Amino acid sequence: MDHTDTISPRLRPPSSRAVHPPLSAALSQKTRTVRKARKNLTREERAQIRWMNARGFSYSKIADIHDISVSTVRNAVENVIYSRPDNASEDDQYLDAEFLAKYLPEVEASSAATGPSHASDPKVSTGNGASSGSGFDASSLGSVKSVKLTLSGEGANNGSGGRASLGRSPRRANPYTRRSVSTGVSRGVGPEPQSISASASAPMPRNGRLAEADANGPSSQLSRITTSFSIPDTQSPASRSPSMADTMASSPHVAMPSERSAGSPPNASPAPRATPRPLDPENVVFFRDFLSNLDVDLTRFQTDLIANNLGCARHVLPLRSWTSHELYDLLKEAIPGMSPLERYVLVQGMRAMDDNGRKNPSTIRRLREDPSANAQLQSRVDANRFLNLIGFGFETQNLDTMYKIILISSWPPEVIHAFIVEDIPEIPPVSRYVLVHGLRTLWTHLQEVGEWTAPSNSELLPVRTPPRYLSTFLAALDYDMSEYEGFLVERGLDSLHIITAVRRWPAGDLHAMLRDVYPDLPVVKRYVLVHGIRACRDDGVYEKSARRVALDASPDAWARPAFAFLASLAHDLSGYLATLAKVNLGTLGQLAALSDWDGDELHGLLKEAVPELSVTHRFILVKGVKGIPLNAVYIIPIRDASYENESGIFGQIIRWPASADSTDGHHVVHFIR
Question: Which end of the chain is more exposed for a tag (fewer CB within 10 A), N or C?
Answer without folding.
Answer: N
